[in-house]
Design a protein that fits this description.
alpha/beta, 185 residues, 6 strands, three-stranded parallel β-sheet
Length: 185
């Protein structure tokens, strides 16, 4: 599924994976990914500009295995992550351009659960000043979305539209719809 997603023309990908599997899949698809990621220390955040389908920006929101000190895995790491979310430019852990794209572009979340409070925190911090009338659509592919999350995030606040489908079924359908061909193993 990762190789199928890598072939799709996404200019920006946010991942919680620490590994290099996504970058490798993008390279195999003939793309030149530009990688940036979260850091727990107060340092300027790498901010790549002009994401494009052939040179997508990959933002590793929970760190990168190439920099073990950046990995968010323990409760203390998550606390530090939440604290860093209030840092100001240029030290904000989420690059300014990424915030712009997330407030302006339709967003698709694949393989995430909105039970993850980090993801909900990110939504709120990135979109809390946006007029709901002009907020871009967000979709979450989740085989079994939590009923309470659906009630709050979809039915009440209208933040996210849920696609209740298994990723293994959804990605081939999306692949065919976008590229006009079957996803082959």
């Amino acid at each position: 599924m990762l190789y199928g997603l890598a072939e799709l023309p996404f200019p920006l990908v946010i991942t919680t994976n620490y590994d290099r599997l996504l970058e490798n899949a993008l390279g195999k698809a003939g793309k030149l990914p530009r990688v940036a990621g979260y850091t727990p220390s107060l340092e300027a955040t790498t901010d790549h500009r002009n994401p494009a389908a052939n040179s997508p920006i990959v933002f590793k929101i929970h760190g990168d295995i190439a920099r073990p000190e950046t990995i968010v895995i323990t409760d203390e790491d998550y606390i530090q992550f939440v604290l860093r979310m209030s840092s100001k430019e240029p030290f904000d852990p989420v690059p300014l351009s990424l915030k712009f794209y997330l407030t302006d572009w339709t967003t698709l979340f694949v393989g995430y659960s909105l039970l993850d409070y980090n993801l909900r925190l990110l939504f709120k911090t990135l979109r809390w000043k946006i007029d709901p009338a002009i907020m871009p659509d967000m979709y979450s592919v989740d085989c079994h979305p939590d009923p309470l999350i659906v009630s709050v995030w979809h039915e009440q606040r209208r933040y996210v539209k849920f696609i209740a489908e298994d990723v293994w079924a959804f990605v081939p359908k999306l692949y065919k719809l976008v590229l006009g061909k079957e996803l082959t193993p």
